[in-house]
Amino acid sequence: MTRVVLAPDSFKGTITAVDAAVALAEGWASVEPTAEFVHRPMADGGEGTVDAFQAAVAGAVRMPVTVDGPAGVSIDTAWLLLPPTEDAPGGTAVVDLASTSGIELLDELRPWDADTTGLGQAIAAALDHGVSRLVVGIGSSASTDGGTGMLTALGARFLDAAGVPVPRGARGLSEITSVDLTRLRTAPEVRVLTDVTNPLTGPRGAAAVFGPQKGLRDADDIARVDEALGRLAARLGLDPTQPGAGAAGGTGAALVRWGGVLAPGAAEVAELIRLPAAIDAADIVITGEGSYDGQSGDGKVPSFLADLAATAGVRAMLAAGRITDDSDTSLFAASTSLTDLAGSAEAALTEPPRWLREAGAALARATKS
């Protein structure tokens, strides 16, 4: 009997990690009905992080909150309260940027005006509740505001030459001439989960690498935002070359300034859900995400799972919405994409559960060939 660990990330905007794991298991079982399945849906600090913690921690409670979303309107969302422990008597709050200031919350990109205010408001609500510790997932950002929106919601002020608060989002970055942190709220212990190691500025920085995904298409605009992030770092006393500072459009840097410690999101979540032990006892581990591309090897779930499986001497397999030409699938014993199985990206996006079942079956057949 084959023991299969199912540990996909969410397929952004189409299917959750929990549902993706179920569909993959159903597909595998259609080929090998006697297989045993262990479900360990994953996250790396982006979409699905709160869900992963809620599934793993008994007594976790969703705490509703209304925040300013990245589209410029209020949204209803939630942060997660974990039960008190000896070292966190007030409990631990899990807050993710994806559900407060994330790109999936936009109908259309807003490269200059989307901001992280909502994330800061959710953190402030957790602080008001009296939590002793924060876990902040910062993947899936909609903006490149350097975390200024978040810090503003926590009491900071970013001012122009006339002493007036600058506009929100990347639009206001170039106008900042002074920063007032005298009213910035005191941070508790803060663990920051990030899925990337990019610095704040430069050719691998927030604007250059992730700006185009958020709508910064023009090279001059990217250079303008990159320069503004560099000046912001100087005013905040930050090292713009620190790995992870460029995460979430520079929110990583802002959280470090607030006292947070950056940590690899996938590794943190994996430990919480006891994934290493599950893999040690498995024959195969299947992982996946919406798009497996050239960035997937830089701290994201599939590459992390492949390394974990290799350490345990277990075969790793990949099911992704798409697999791009610049990606490295040599880490996996077998891989398949929903786009190839469905015949087009449109078809795959229309029925992700169906094609994930097909992917599970295809990977099962690959073990018998």
Describe the structure using short key phrases.
14 helices; 6-stranded mixed sheet; alpha/beta; 369 residues; 5-stranded parallel sheet
Annotate the secondary structure layout.
Elements: E1 3-6, H1 17-31, E2 36-39, H2 49-56, E3 61-68, E4 74-82, E5 92-96, H3 98-101, H4 117-129, E6 133-137, H5 148-153, E7 157-159, E8 178-180, E9 189-194, H6 206-210, H7 219-236, H8 247-258, E10 261-264, H9 265-272, H10 275-280, E11 284-287, E12 291-292, H11 301-312, E13 315-320, E14 322-323, E15 334-337, H12 338-342, H13 345-350, H14 352-368
Parallel strand pairs: 1-2, 1-11, 5-6, 6-9, 9-10, 11-13, 12-14, 13-15
Antiparallel strand pairs: 3-4, 4-5, 7-8
Helix pairs in contact: 1-14
How many DSSP E strands?
15
Low-confidence segments, ≥5 residues, pLDDT <50? none
Structural class: alpha/beta
Order of helices and strands: EHEHEEEHHEHEEEHHHEHHEEHEEEHHH
Question: How would a crystallographer describe the biggest sheet?
Answer: 6 strands, mixed
Can you count the helices?
A: 14
Mean pLDDT: 94
Task: Identify the overall geometry.
Answer: globular
Strand content: 15-25%
What does this structure look like?
The protein starts with a strand and ends with a helix. It has helices at 17-31, 49-56, 98-101, 117-129, 148-153, 206-210, 219-236, 247-258, 265-272, 275-280, 301-312, 338-342, 345-350, 352-368; strands spanning 3-6, 36-39, 61-68, 74-82, 92-96, 133-137, 157-159, 178-180, 189-194, 261-264, 284-287, 291-292, 315-320, 322-323, 334-337. The strands form 4 sheets. It has a 6-stranded mixed beta sheet, sandwiched between helices. The protein has a 5-stranded parallel beta sheet with strand order 2-1-11-13-15, sandwiched between helices. A two-stranded antiparallel ribbon has the order 7-8. Helix 1 crosses helix 14 (352-368). The chain has 14 helices and 15 strands. By secondary structure, the chain is α/β, with parallel strands linked by helices. The chain is globular, with a radius of gyration of 21 Å.
